[in-house]
Specification:
With 562 residues, the chain is of the alpha/beta class. The model is unreliable at 442-446 (pLDDT under 50). A five-stranded mixed sheet has the order 3-6-7-8-9. The protein has helices spanning 8-12, 18-45, 50-67, 82-113, 117-120, 125-148, 159-168, 175-194, 200-217, 219-222, 233-236, 253-285, 291-304, 317-325, 331-348, 357-372, 374-380, 385-400, 403-425, 467-479, 499-514, 526-533, 537-541, 550-561, and strands at residues 75-76, 314-315, 427-431, 434-436, 449-451, 456-462, 486-493, 518-522, 546-547. Helices cover 64% and strands 7% of the residues.
Length: 562
């Protein structure tokens, strides 16, 4: 199998110019500045330190741009991973997160090597909207404590218990933190009306950080002592402004087995979000990404970054669109964005300790709102009952239980409902006297009706003959009281047949043989014929009894009746 790995950075640099470099340089600098508050916020919300979010954006962002199949994709930590990463860190610690992320990286790498990039896009839309909306609500729920400045020692892990604790501690709300949080949300929400070039999240963080710093430093002079209770990053974390040395955790098979479901969730989320981001970018730039190369790049990034303390990474739609809107058109912009973040970590890292936690909570509330897609969610509720069932089930499982269960059950439910739809479209009918051949297109220039000899019955299967319909067909055949001399199974409208369908045909042949009934197949297409040729039924039935059209089958049946 030929490897489908063609990084855009390798091909685009052949005709690279100075003008393109300066355009990419400016785009990369702007994206790096935009990514700063998001990387810090995602790191803290995921249950790790702020610099671990930055390290993820630096290392994974560079690898994804360097090896990726999209020209403009920007990689890094995203809100989609917050829920699953927080759960892993809470239960297994950092060693568990390293193992889960590496396994997820290997899965992504394997998906790309096996050319599954296009298959990932077939995940039903209601599942994507369901878990995305569920993640958004969960992210908002995790930020309530910091947004309101509540005095809570430990917040429970599950959704319902969180809200119970919040209600019980409603009297501990800190007015200063609440004002900082609401102010940050308003700045981010209304900043685009003033300027779309300057990111609202950055303005909110700079303004609120300076404001809270001044109020805390000069509380005695101003008399505003309430600012002393506003918690900052430095009150909770010790900032380490440098890239750490790689660490390798102790790994056991027991740990790997327990982390496999979470790793699968990370891999699926990473694949969906990165390819969705790349597809959206293609629609804006007119370019076309290589989905398999993109998955390989995502896998490589997630294999490397956890050893340096990073968290899972994928393509980020908001940062990718920022890159495009500011002129970025080659992977160089993404690499510059990573270098900018590295310089910020080294030279401005210590200053991040002054950022208020309520401000970061405000940033994540906006992220959660944008992720929620509530308008799309509302419109999908008007669709068919099966789509609504998948949407609501995935949403509720994501919120109440966890994302791993939601994706697994959502996919299973979607497949079962799809198979039910397909099985409902497949019909079985029987003809005993006259067969109407008009406008069927199987054979040319035939009379309108064809008489069937006595003792010959035609059973037509209309639709795929797979496990969803095979048992239905078998029950239908057993329910028939009369026993003809010849049964013609007409399969002209059967596009494919699986192993269960083949097994049922073999069972029907054995039963017919015991009852001295001859079986004849009609209208078998090339795909179904290929399945039959590899089976024992081909020899048992005989090639002469597998006919290309109904006329041949009836002529064959006449010889048996005679």
């Amino acid at each position: 199998m030929k490897l489908d790995f063609h990084p855009n950075s390798f091909s685009m640099l052949k005709n690279y110019s100075k003008e393109k470099f300066f355009t990419d340089l400016m785009a990369g600098v702007i994206v790096g500045i935009v990514a700063l508050p998001l990387a810090i916020a995602f790191g803290i919300a995921s249950g790790v330190s702020p610099e671990q979010g930055l390290i993820t954006a630096i290392i994974a962002g560079f690898i994804i741009s360097f090896l990726g199949g999209s020209s403009v994709q920007i990689g890094g930590p995203t809100g989609a991973f917050i829920v699953v990463v927080y759960g892993i860190v809470h239960e297994f610690g950092m060693d568990g997160l390293i193992v889960a992320t590496v396994i997820a990286g290997l899965m992504l790498l394997l998906m790309g090597l096996l050319k599954l990039g296009t298959v990932i896009k077939f995940i039903p839309y209601p599942i994507i909207v369901g878990f995305t909306s569920g993640i958004a609500l969960t992210i908002f729920t995790t930020q309530v404590k910091d947004l309101l400045g509540m005095d809570i020692a430990a917040v429970p892990g599950d959704f319902v218990s969180k809200w119970v604790v919040y209600i019980q501690n409603i009297t501990t709300i800190h007015p200063g933190s609440l004002l900082v949080g609401i102010g940050s949300i308003l700045i981010i929400a209304y900043m685009p009306k003033l300027s779309r070039k300057v990111p609202g999240s950055l303005v909110a963080i700079v303004f609120m950080t300076v404001l809270v710093y001044l109020l805390r430093e000069y509380a005695d002079i101003t008399g505003i002592t309430g600012a002393m209770g506003i918690e900052t990053i430095g009150d909770r974390f010790q900032i380490n402004p440098e890239l750490p040395a790689p660490e390798f955790p102790a790994i056991s098979m027991a740990m790997i087995n327990r982390l496999l479901p979470s790793a699968f969730t990370i891999a699926i989320l990473g694949a969906i979000e990165s390819l969705l981001s790349a597809t959206v970018a293609d629609g804006v730039t007119g370019d076309r990404h290589n989905s398999n190369t993109e998955l390989i790049a995502q896998g490589a990034a997630n294999i490397v970054v956890p050893f340096f303390g990073g968290i899972p990474a994928t393509g980020a739609i908001a940062r990718t669109m920022t890159n495009i809107n500011n002129g970025g058109r080659t992977p160089i912009a993404g690499m510059v964005h990573a270098v900018v973040l590295l310089l910020i970590l080294y030279f401005l890292g210590p200053l991040t300790k002054h950022i208020p936690m309520a401000c970061l909570a405000g940033v994540l509330v906006i992220v959660a709102y944008n992720m929620s897609e509530w308008r799309v969610f509302r419109s999908l509720l008007k669709n068919s009952r099966s789509d609504v069932a998948v949407l609501v089930t995935t949403f509720l499982l994501t919120v109440i239980f966890d994302l791993t269960i939601a994706i697994e059950i959502g996919l299973l439910l979607a497949m079962l409902l799809f198979m039910r739809r397909i099985s409902e479209t497949t019909k079985v009918s029987v003809v005993k006297d006259k067969l109407d051949l008009s406008q069927e297109g199987e054979i040319q220039h035939v009379e309108e009706k064809l008489d069937l000899p006595d003792g010959v019955e035609v059973y037509e299967i209309d639709g795929p003959f797979f496990f969803g319909i095979a048992n239905k067909f078998e029950e239908y055949m057993r329910s028939l009281g009369e026993k003809p001399k010849v049964r013609i199974i007409r399969m002209r409208k059967v596009p494919f047949m699986d192993t269960t369908g083949l097994h049922n045909l073999e069972s029907l042949h054995r039963l017919s043989k015991k009852e001295n009934i001859q079986l004849v197949l009609s209208g078998v297409n090339e795909k179904v014929r290929a399945v039959l040729e590899k089976s024992d039924l081909w020899q048992q039935l005989g090639e002469d009894n597998i006919c290309s059209n109904i006329r041949e089958a009836i002529e064959k049946a006449k010889t048996y009746v005679a």
